Amino acid sequence: MASLSFGDREYWDSRFAKDPSGFDWLLPAEALDNAIAEAVAASSSQAPRILHIGCGTSSLSSRLCSLVGSSDRVCNVDFSSVAIKASRAREAAEMPGSRMQWVVANLLSLDDILTLGKSSELGGGLYDIVVDKSTADAISCGEDVPVPLPYPLRVPTMLEAEQDTSDQSTGLVHPLSLLAVHVASLVPSGGRWLVLSYSSSRFHFLKREDHASSESLVGTGAFVDPLQLWEVAQEEPFDAPQAGEPVVGRPVVKHVLYTLIRTSIPVSLRARC
Ligand SMILES: C[S@@+](CC[C@H](N)C(=O)[O-])C[C@H]1O[C@@H](n2cnc3c(N)ncnc32)[C@H](O)[C@@H]1O
């Protein structure tokens, strides 16, 4: 059998089944406290809703409740039913009265995204803040994803190009481009997507200067260019924990906290044939 990657559900299911107790990737959950508190304060909503994507068994879920002031405004999503089951059980055991939502969903599946966003409200925005601790990292390890073209999620400038829906095909898109479009469909203009990543080039495809090198499918009229949907507002370096004893001269490894801001361009759902 081919070896599994961080982009595969089977990999995560088996990992969480071996250790269902809480585990935090890259950094302890509290490392994001300031950034999340800032995003809550900056939100145009008095009662911002949080979508925690790829929650795994991180203690970030419970921290989000205190940071946002209410457990019922926190929705945790993961495609590993094992992680969701373990995390939900931990909430029940350790947080009496807490009412977070726990959803098993594949963030790369359009049907799952439409269910998450209750499709009729698509474009209206359901989650003011999306929190992602190394989930974009895991997703970026996956293979390019086959998608129907023209893609059912579109922006207004693509409308004309899509009049002829008889010309249907499929194409391959990078999993992070697909994630960026899916997440954008759930977030209103001005909403934020906070991403803690080990990579300093995780969102190169959202930067105009690097854009020429991105994949050819995006922005063709068949698939939305995520550059239209997100602005990289901030990249804050974080010292990664050092393994073992400190060694003089060893370079300090940095993680990066990205703050992406949703642009005002709406994403809507093309009627499916
Ligand atoms: C690196 S772990 C991070 C877990 C957690 N955020 C933390 O900080 O400990 C990546 C998480 O993303 C989830 N994941 C990966 N691909 C996914 C996808 N396509 N849809 C939903 N969840 C996914 C995995 O199940 C795993 O829980």
TrEMBL record:
Superkingdom assignment: Eukaryota
Gene Ontology BP term (one): methylation
Xref: InterPro entries: Lys/N-term_MeTrsfase_sf, SAM-dependent_MTases_sf
GO molecular function: methyltransferase activity
Annotated keywords: Methyltransferase, Transferase
Protein family per UniProt: Belongs to the methyltransferase superfamily.
Protein name, as recorded: Uncharacterized protein
Native source organism of the sequence: Drechslerella stenobrocha 248
